[in-house]
Design goal:
This protein has 416 residues and is of the alpha+beta class. It has two domains: 210 residues, no CATH class; 184 residues, Glucose Permease (Domain IIA). The chain is 55% helix and 14% strand. The strands form two sheets. Strands 1, 2, 3, 4, 5, 6, 7, 8, 9 and 12 form a ten-stranded antiparallel beta sheet that branches. A two-stranded antiparallel sheet has the order 10-11. A hairpin with an 8-residue loop joins strand 10 and strand 11. Helix 1 runs antiparallel to helix 3. The two termini are 62 Å apart. This is M23ase beta-sheet core domain-containing protein.
Length: 416
């Protein structure tokens, strides 16, 4: 029977394409793993709420003026927030590890189910091949009556249907196995990523402690010295901002806005997920907005308030063109500049750490650094800027250190 031989070949092919090393199972049972995962998830929710509380306290502090006492409070909140970020990463690593163990159980179950199904298929094939050698005429003649012979033939047909169903089930089982293997691989990558976040968050905590000590050492715990430094800082920042605004004005005068890409959402990936989309970011200043900090000049980017140490993602595929630092308390602080293939360049400023290098290719959604409070900033946030690439220049502007990126400003929200 050609029909039977086709199934025999198909069954043997399906049987032969499985086989993988069995994962090492955790000491916990699947139910214990589920309970442990749920417990970690609740712990992460509690930590997230604490981080949000510190962020709210920082926001309230920003509206109360600038004194040495409040500066110390700000550092204390940031240090607490950094500690909570470390704890969040530690628990996330634990949760991901438990989820990986749970997937390993599913892999074992899938392999065992596949082995059982293979055995059933092999047994069915063995019977069918034996009947196939007998032939239909032999089955009709060997029985005492024609009815019994027909029943015998029907039994073969039923076996063929069983074989067909088993082969179909096996294929579905293998698809499930492949999907589980993929999830397992993704989970391992997630663990590696979170461990990297944990390492960087510990470094960010050390930086915050050092920054607090540096400020207290400089002002010798005296309000008068702090206010004197603050006045000097504001004067220096005003000089830097004025120079940048003048260059931007000259660049805009030569710019033809018609050559920009069509405005539409999704051109850029959000560098950090907003609270309205299930994340933790909150827009605190839109591009073009005016506040006391800018002395009446329009804001040249989008500010997103986020806890210190939050991973910042590249908005699109591109090449890193600058990784620099304008100083702890001036302009953009630590920043990353990325040029994209759509003739737009994105800026990620006030970072606590950068983890990319100049010339490096980055992918859309790839982590490039962590949010911070460096540069001229009153609280932890991301300054996200977008420039028309051909207009971008890198300028040394005293007393800011390093190079300051300047160019024709594009509203980020037109492309997010």
């Amino acid at each position: 029977m050609k029909f039977l031989r086709k199934f025999a070949i198909l069954g043997l092919l399906v049987i032969g394409c499985t086989g993988m090393q069995q994962p090492v199972l955790a000491a916990q049972t699947p139910e214990e793993l589920r309970q442990a995962i749920d417990a970690r998830a609740k712990e992460l929710e509690a930590i997230s709420a604490q981080i949000q509380e510190t962020n709210d306290n920082l926001s309230k502090l920003q509206g109360q003026g600038r004194t040495l006492t409040q500066e110390v409070k700000k550092f204390d909140y940031l240090i607490n927030q950094a500690n909570l970020g470390i704890k969040s990463s530690e628990v996330s690593v634990q949760k991901l590890g438990l989820e990986l163990d749970s997937l390993n159980y599913k892999l074992v179950d899938a392999n065992q189910s596949i082995e059982s199904k293979k055995e059933a298929i092999v047994e069915t094939l063995r019977i069918l091949l034996k009947r196939d050698r007998e032939g239909i005429l032999h089955m009709l003649l060997k029985n005492a009556s024609l009815v019994e012979g027909v029943f015998d033939i029907q039994a073969v047909k039923d076996l063929q249907d069983v074989l067909s169903a088993n082969v179909s089930d096996l294929k579905k089982m293998q698809e499930t196995l492949t999907e589980t293997i993929s999830k397992t691989s993704d989970k391992r990558v997630a663990i590696e990523t979170e461990n990297r976040n944990l390492k960087n968050k510990k470094l960010i905590l050390d930086d915050q402690k050092q920054d607090k000590n540096d400020v207290l050492k400089q002002v010798k715990n005296r309000e008068s010295l702090y206010q004197k430094q603050l006045t000097e800082l504001e004067s220096q920042q005003e000089s830097v901002s004025k120079d940048i605004a003048e260059i931007e004005r000259e660049l805009r005068a030569k710019f033809d806005a018609s050559i920009l890409p069509l405005k539409r959402p999704g051109v850029f990936h959000w560098p950090v997920t907003l609270r309205s989309s299930g994340g933790i970011g909150v827009i605190t200043q839109h591009a073009g907005g005016v506040s006391r900090l800018y002395n009446g000049r329009p804001h040249n980017g989008l500010d997103i308030g986020i806890p210190i140490g939050t991973p910042i993602m590249s908005a699109e595929d591109g090449i890193v063109t600058a990784v620099d630092n304008n100083g702890k308390r001036l302009q953009y602080g630590r920043y990353v500049l990325i040029k994209h293939g759509n003739n737009m360049t994105t800026l990620y400023a006030h970072l606590s750490r950068q983890i990319v290098q100049v010339g490096q290719s980055v992918k859309r959604g790839e982590t490039i650094g962590y949010s911070g409070n460096t540069g001229y900033s009153t609280g932890p946030h991301l300054h996200f800027g977008v420039y028309w690439s051909p207009s971008v220049i890198m300028k040394s502007i005293y007393p800011a250190t390093g190079l300051v990126p300047i160019g024709v400003i594009i509203d980020p929200e037109d492309y997010l």
